[in-house]
Amino acid sequence: PDLPHPVAGAASPAPVTGDGRLLVLAGDDGTRLHLNGPHHPGFQREILAYDPALCAWSVVGEAPFSRATVPTAFWRGQWIVPSGERIPGVRSPEVWALGVEP
Q1: Which among 17, 20, 40, 70 could bridge 87 via Cys, Cβ 3.0 to 4.6 Å?
Q2: Residues 6+ apart with CB under 8 A from 2
Q3: DSSP per residue over 26-65, as a string?
Q4: Using CB atoms within 10 A of its CB, is residue 83 exposed (0-12), middle (13-18) or buried (19+)?
Q5: Span 39-68, pLDDT tens digits
Q6: Region for residue 83 given its phi and psi (left: phi exceeds 0; alpha: psi -120 to 50; beta: otherwise)
């Protein structure tokens, strides 16, 4: 099924939980497109999960960061989220490690 709303530039590849759910972390939903520079509050923090067993999307929480155009890597049992844009055109030096539970 389609996502509940648009999401562009979310963390990629999408982290996967132990039970096989795909997570869409942060990204740009387009609702703040008219804001730029210091007036932009950052991208969404919502975490969406796709459950292939149920063929359904749900909101499972909020990320501690707001990023778009950011890579991920699975390393030592955690999903690493390095850098990314915190607002359009401004990259962050932060690196996040996310543990996912089944």
Answers
A1: 40
A2: none
A3: S-B-STTTT--GGG------EEEEEETTTTEEEEEEE-SS
A4: middle
A5: 899 999 999 999 999 999 999 999 999 999
A6: left
With beta carbons less than 8 A apart as the criterion, state whether 72 and 79 touch.
yes
Would you call 71 helix, strand, or coil by DSSP? strand
pTM (whole model) above 0.90: no
Distances (CA, A) of 49 to 55, 60, 75, 96: 11, 6, 20, 19
Report how far residue 24's alpha carbon sits from residue 102's, in angstroms, rounded to the nearest whole number.
16
Tell whether the model's pLDDT for residue 37 goes beyond 90. Answer: no
Percentage of the chain lying above the pLDDT 90 cut:
77
User: How far does the chain reach from its first CA to its final CA, in angstroms?
Assistant: 22
Alpha-carbon distance 12 to 68, whole Å?
10
